[in-house]
Structures are given as C-alpha cells and as structure tokens.
Amino acid sequence: TKLENGTLTVAPGESNIDSVQNGDLVKVVLTLKADAPCEYLIVEDPIPSSCRINDRGAVDSESDWGWWWSQMVAYDNRMAFFITHLEPGEYKLAYIMRAENPGQANAMPTVVYNMYDPDLRASTPAQGFRVDPK
C-alpha cells in the first residue's frame, strides 16, 4: 500500500515463496518504490515464527545499497532497516533467513514508516508460510 502522502509504496513481489523445507535458506528481498524524496524511514520486516535470520543478503553487483541506508538491525522476530534519505526510484533491501521449525506460520506485514511521524506509514499484507520436514 502507499504512504498517506503517496510518496512510497511497499508491495509483494511477483513470485512470493509460501513453503520451504526445514533447513532451507531463503533470501528475502524487499522492494521500496519512492515517488518523491523521503527522509528518516524505518522498514521492519517480521519473519515467520518458524524461521531465524541468518545473515543480511550479499550486495548485488547491480546495486550498491550502502549509500542510501544508514543501519540494519536483526532482531529475534524481525529485520529492521533505517534509511536516512531516499530519492525517487526503486530500492532493494535483502537478508537471508533459515527455515528451522516445521509447521504453518505467518509472515506478518512488512511496515515502512517515518521515524518522526509514525502515522505516515505503508505496509504489505500478511502471508501464510509453511516449513515442511525434510
């Protein structure tokens, strides 16, 4: 969905993964689309309860993303990215998670909001996520 002022959109990708096998590594790629300059954003991506954050994704040779974000923090239940400034355009954030516990879980909505105006926010829908035993 879009931010209330229409400047930033967060949307699910074309080919979301909804099931993996226990022990699989999953590269999570978040795409941000900014229609206007944005400042001081937080992107929080909750992980399914059946998974654990393993590492941040490797920087693709196509995009050097170190200049536009300031910090990333891996929590037990989510990955958070702190962005100082975005110019209009499309940006990708990535990290790796490992499927660890077989069963059905939910990938809760990814949320992006302004750090100094938390009412200015956008989010994706929640999605079911299943980890199958090997």
Explain what you see:
This protein is mainly β and 134 residues long. The strands form 3 sheets. Strands 6-7-4-10-11 form a 5-stranded antiparallel β-sheet, with no helix packed on it. The radius of gyration is 15 Å and the shape is elongated.
Short key terms for the protein model shown above:
134 residues, elongated, single chain
Instruction: State the strand order across the main sheet.
Output: 6-7-4-10-11
Quote the distance from N terminus to C terminus.
Answer: 36 Å
Q: What class would the helix/strand composition place it in?
A: mainly beta
**Mean pLDDT score, rounded?**
82
Distinct helical segment count: 0
* Portion in helices: under 10%
Bulk shape: elongated
What is the strand content? over 45%
Number of strands: 12
Q: Describe the largest sheet.
A: 5 strands, antiparallel
Low-pLDDT segments: 58-63
Element pattern in H and E: EEEEEEEEEEEE
Radius of gyration: 15 Å
Brief rundown of the structure:
With 134 residues, the protein is mainly β. Helices cover 0% and strands 57% of the residues.
Task: Map the helices and strands.
Elements: E1 8-10, E2 19-21, E3 25-34, E4 38-46, E5 51-56, E6 71-74, E7 78-86, E8 89-99, E9 103-107, E10 111-114, E11 117-123, E12 127-132
Parallel strand pairs: 2-12
Antiparallel strand pairs: 1-3, 3-8, 4-7, 4-10, 5-8, 6-7, 9-12, 10-11
